[in-house]
Amino acid sequence: MPPRRKLNEFERGRAVAWFQDGVPKREVARRLHVSISVIVRLIQCFTATGRVQERRKPGRPKKTTLREDRLIERLALQTRTASSSIIRRQLRVATNTNISQQTIRNRLHGFNLR
């Protein structure tokens, strides 16, 4: 089975509208190219809450943005021997973001870099 695809808000609204118009769940899933379980969970969530927005995810929010993450990766790839403290200083100069060296190492680990 292909990896699970997330529906954006427009697609979720469309799926609920089709379901309310009497289209079977299997047909809604086929039209959106997703598993029927995705549609079943969406309909259950909609009937319970009346909303199609995603629920908030638990956990602490990330300290860095996606743009800063890409910059960390680019800095590490440009200078392969740069330590996390050097990357941290370069990031602070470029974006005025103060993060710890451990955060830099965590992001690099996420990119399969050291």
TrEMBL record:
The record ties this protein, via Pfam families, to: HTH_23
Q: What is this protein called?
A: Transposase Tc1-like domain-containing protein
